Amino acid sequence: MRVHPARISEQNMYLMQTATHGNEEPFRSRSTPTTSAPGPKPNSSSTAQSEPKPKQLTAKDELSLVWRWQRRSDHRARDTLVRAFQPAIRAVAAKHPGRGLEFDDRVQLGNVGFLIALDKFDIHRRCRLWTYAQGWVRAEITNATAKSSSIVRATTVGTIDM
Questions:
Q1: Which domain holds residue 132?
Q2: What are the pLDDT digits (tens) for 94-118?
Q3: Does a structural domain hold residue 158?
Q4: What stretch of H or E contains 62?
Q5: What is the pLDDT of residue 100?
Q6: Is 104:44 a contact under the CB 8 Å cutoff?
Q7: Of 81, 38, 39, which Cα lies nearest the Cα of 57?
Q8: Distance CA 89, CA 107 (A)
Q9: pTM across the whole model
Q10: Portion of the chain with pLDDT greater than 70, in percent
Q11: What digits encode the pLDDT tens for the residues 24-47?
Q12: What CATH number should be reported for the domain holding residue 106?
């Protein structure tokens, strides 16, 4: 029975890749090349996906971090919140159509929207931070997409004589 690669945890993948059977070579997945080419990484989004997932925050932790950022301007608290919500921001950016904007640009716009929401969030509301911030993230990406695409398309066939 084959298991879909997305269902295998990172730790199990590591164990599978390093496991040896007798004197054989370690198991390597088909997608992993045996040699790597020198030079820069081909895509910055692929390197960002290889980072370990941040710890999911509880509602109490969220509120204390938001309070520390809003009241004390604690940059560590802000950075912790941004890192914790990075997977959610990336998911929203992936769902929006590009229309001229690269994925990494949409992620950065999502981060800007999240920071705006973080500044405006009221800790006395009875909702989680992501529930509030999701609208700001979407709005920021949507507005930038609308600004970057033009409504009138230039013709590519030729010019029109009048």
A1: 59-146
A2: 998 877 789 999 999 999 999 999 9
A3: no
A4: helix 59-72
A5: 78
A6: yes
A7: 81
A8: 7
A9: 0.61
A10: 58
A11: 444 344 444 444 444 444 444 444
A12: 1.10.1740
* Count: domains in the chain: 1
- 28 contacts: CB under 8 Å, gap ≥ 6: 17, 34
Q: Which of 91, 124, 132, 128 is nearest to 110 (CA)?
A: 91
d(CA 26, CA 16) in angstroms, rounded, equals 8
Burial of 109 (0-12, 13-18, 19+ CB in 10 A): buried
Q: Is residue 40 part of a domain?
A: no
What is the Cα–Cα distance from 52 to 45, expressed in whole angstroms?
14
Q: Tell me whether residue 24 is in a domain.
A: no
Indicate whether 85 pLDDT > 50: yes
Per-residue pLDDT band for 141 (boundaries 50, 70, 90) equals very high
Q: Which residues contact 144 (CB under 8 A, 6 or more apart)?
A: 101, 105, 106, 109
